[in-house]
Structures
1.
Amino acid sequence: MQHKVVVTGIGIISAIGFDTKGVMDSLQAQRSGIGRLSLIDSVYKDEIPVAEIKATNDELLQIADPGITGNYSRTSLLGIIAARQAIAAARIDVSAPGRTGLISATTVGGMDRSEIFYRGYLSGSGKARLRDVVTHDCGDSTEKIADCTGIRDYITTINTACSSSANAIMVGARLIREGKLDRVVAGGTDALTLFTLNGFNSLMILDRNPCRPFDEDRNGLNLGEGSGFLVLESEEFACRENKNVLGVIKGYGNACDAYHQTASSPEGHGACLSMLKALEVAGLAPDAISYINAHGTGTKNNDLSEGVALETVFQAGIPHCSSTKSYTGHTLGAAGGIEAVLSIIALQHQWIYPNLNFARPMNELGFVPVTAFVTGIPVNCIMSNSFGFGGNNSTLIFSRY
Amino acid sequence: MESYIKGTAMISPQRTFEDKGFPEEVINYTGSDYLGCIEPSYRDYIDPMVARRMSRIVKMGVCAAIRCMKNSNVEMPDAVLAGTGLGCLEDTEKFLGSIFNNAEKLLNPTPFIQSTHNTVAAAIALAIKCHNYNATYTHRGFSFESAIQDALLQLAEKPEANILTGGFDELTVNSYHITKRLGMWKNHPVTSLRLKEYNTRGSLPGEGTAFFMLSGIHGSHDIAALKAMRTFYKPRDHHEIENHLDQLLGEAGVHLHDVSLMMLGVNGDPSTDSMYYRLMSDRCNRLPGAYFKHLCGEYDTASSFALWLSAILLKNQVIPESIGLTGNLPGVLDNIVIYNHLRGSYHAMYLLSRC
């Protein structure tokens, strides 16, 4: 028997807010988190804008859990904060009967601290402290979240670049659907690092201004940081415990573009496949989608490829569509989790978010994203796209319960 | 759910790639800091022009995956799944070094592009033009197991699918030195084949790349059947470990006395090897035991070497002396239990059976 998978809790920390309430306020006020880099010492701090969470690691530790001791990367602190919020919102007790899993996603793991270590290590000055490198691997942040929340039954980490946490939610939903687990805390976390800032800069895809997804004059993405987690439960479990159901994981799709290690295919083949698979799993026709939370990074390549794919999948017309990366920046491994949380909020409040900074449609496409904060229209099904390097494309579909 | 290994390929510190079975002679590494892979000739598997731009781990991954597909007679897998503890370390270090050495200016993006953990699974998809499901797991000692679990989930959804599933990890000189300072490795020279005899702290590092083709449908050329697999995190005591063994066997309806061999992840560190020995003495004291980390070294996805080795033993029904057998084997090898853990935290058990 296949179980229906519902969402019973959400948790988020991002440049636009430290929790769901803060994020909702920023969204409504159309207040972007993109600004000056202040917490990382980079030669680009006055040149390349980012969506940074304005809290030091010590401050984040106080929010995460003032009682914890040990070595925590920024990635793990962000993850603990969002996962704990989601667990509190869902009122789940991991020691109660039932199998609980944690599926987290990250692309750089504890790189923020590895950089400190490596700088000392490479200089040969003997200043490299081992406590700065023990948090390097991606699994570390997940283990820290697991140990802080007491989740033991199933723990894993996914890294498929920028689609990582969409895949974490998808795998969590599949495990519940097949009856392997009863509840899953699924999402992702990534911190801003010199590594990613310089990596994306070396690819020449960082906009020197706030990003303009789907705009003809778009000139790249802005990196962000943060974490977003959902609590997924089987419908039986949620109902038995009389939970407030926030939404349903209706569909999911994962496909590989298999075109190029970083670039997306011009026809958006992988993107089409992941959207079509998600619609198929959901058992929905394209016209059932009320709103698309696009991947929409703001790069020339992604937005054109995704736009072409949207026109292919939604032949009768693209539904309301926007990229919230104009608020949160591109949070890499956390993006799918953060955008899933925003999608659930949109379902709950019947909102559609504007695509900030949009002025001019792309020449190649007839498509115009939503530019105003929309309320008062029915929002029943939301599609969320997350595409990554290596052509790792994933799509999630959320619906009202 | 029961699944079948249709084919496999293994690149390891032993000559495991070219031979059909287990190599007749194993390599005894003496005085090496770590066990590095014996790399195959890539030109039979990867276009040399393409290979030139790939890092060592990407080449090993693509090569092992393509060989695995050939060995399985599968032209297009329904999914590509990978597990890696540390991902593409060489390029991560290269890009990190370039940031500091060049003060963030004029950096070559290639090592950044190839530094992400999903590079190998993506490069495989690109090489064979596979648009199907593609994912990479990276969770310490559960990395490979998570990929297998996803594969089993895929097969539960669609039994006739062929799922290409692999585990890989690479060592670099820097990562060796850093992890040595963390106390993971022995601080004296080691003779690899005698790894379990040293009564000293730490293990011997290794690396490897293994791929398997898994399907839910039994075929006449299958190498072995994967009847059950389970993972558990930080068990509270030895009872919990025994309990997991019982559940593993119970799930497949196999009795303990039907287990032909226990394949153990003993890595020479007495502080954590005690978990294996305790299970053997308390619960499995009449069962033969064997080892594998003296052949491949310790790494996050080392259990993939054990899965490869155990599958080959079941298929060929030949027991090489080099696996350090203890106890008396039955005439026919029917069931092998693999029990591996990483540093006492990440535990995995597999039940593998003759087809």
Note: The beta strands of chain B are 3-11, 79-83, 133-137, 162-169, 208-215, 224-233, 261-264, 289-291, 335-342, 346-353.
2.
Amino acid sequence: MPIHHPRPFMTVSAAPQPSASTEQRKRPLVVMRSVSKMFSSGTLALSGMSLTVENGEFVSLLGPSGCGKSTALRIIAGLGDVSAGSIDWPSSRINAKGLPEGDISFVFQEPTLMPWQTVFGNVHLPLKLRGISKHAARDDIIATLATVGLKDFADAYPRELSGGMRMRVSIARALITRPKLLLMDEPFAALDEITRQKLNDDVLRLWKETGITVIFVTHSVFESAYLSNRIVVMKARPGRVHADFPLVTSLERGPNYRTSEEYRATCEKVSHSLLEAIGFPQDGHGEIH
Amino acid sequence: MDAVDVPLAPKPSTFLSRNSDTLLRVFIPIGVVAVLVVIWHIGVVASGVPPYILPSPVAVAGALYKDWPTLLPALWVTAKITLASLALALVGGGGIAILLAQSKWIETAFYPITVILQVTPIVAISPLILIYAPTTQVALLICAFLVAFFPILSNMVQGLKSVDHNLLNLFDLYGASRWQTLLYLKLPSSLPYFMTGLRIGGGLALIAAVVAEFAAGSAGAGSGLAFRLLEAQFRMNIPRLFAALFLLSCLGVTIFAVTSFISWLSLHRWHESSIKREN
């Protein structure tokens, strides 16, 4: 499906073509250096977390609940400051508040739509906040709605849509600003398995077609193994990186990939790492901590 | 038993079937009221109660017709005070709520004052207001305003504070200004709360307008229905008292209907409270 996009498309399989912006593209999108975050309640959510995300990556942040995945994602988005360490966005414009401007979109766990606005109005929001009128944004909004399969629902209100469709609206809203970096915080956790797989495929397709960088928070080993080309396993209390492995596959990710030996092996490897992170004994005899 | 394929079709739609629900909802209450009025009439006629104790509905209707030239201006005065005070309360309550929501400090500093104003019985303040206000009309307006103001304020403050945190995060992420966040997020999402305040405030404004006029004891040509009520009581003109009461009820019902309609109009497309459940 065609996507209106100002930047040249980057496909994953093709080698990056050298161009004037190669230098620009080589710079990582996000650099976290031993970031710690303590909430006002005294909870240490993150401790010394370092993470560098390169352009074009699909990174899954995987970990048990309460391991600070969402906190890390919010910090990457520039929502909330860090207690120690530093975070940089080397390839973004930085505004007066020291935050990246316009390059980052966020998809929350819930669709987080404005119930008083139609689908069209909800997707228009990021542009409206930049002073772009409904009229000027119309074509762009319709095209973006088409990429998530909601072209015919522009005038519907969120309450008229199913959970999966609301999530698509949320994704369309995230894509409308053509961000470099898409942050997704367990976006499909509340959906049924079938809808979830469908949306996973959609996100993969969008990633391939637009060359957008994705950081995807999940607690599902299978989801992370299916989607990403890099998995970062996190350890809880306080949150920090436990393991970080690339996921290179020559296979096309699709229904066949789910049944491949490679996928199974990846899931096993990731599961082991996750168990380690949680602190389960590997011999299978000891007590569970 | 074998499953039989029954074609599923909506029931045939006639005028009666489409509107039967609405018709029932209109006609049943009207019917009940009509029956009560008839019982009232028969009761008065049969028992021979004198009209200066309990007039029959016919006598009340007669008084309404005969005293219309006195009652109409009074109704108009009361309606004006009620509506003006409600309008002021909407602007004032909404405006101050927005101000309070701007910062925690402003709220901490000023919210208690608004509570003190509210919990002090209005009848107790009205003598003071009567002294300070230039005219009785203004005094009545201030009293009614003070009463209608608080539910609108407190509902609106609640609404402005109940904004979805993730939507706030989203607005921050897109670099929305304070003004944009207020206009596009906080105001629309507090609309249901504001509407609740409007409906409560509308009813209270009328009550306060009447009570304040009782307390003011104003008299003469420019007075409202409350004065006409007292006047009718002094003169033992009970049919007229009932007629004045009837007009006050009508005014109250109209305010309720209009505020409910405004509320429905602004919320029916998206808010759960205004959407018919389809099961």
Note: Chain B has a mean pLDDT of 86.
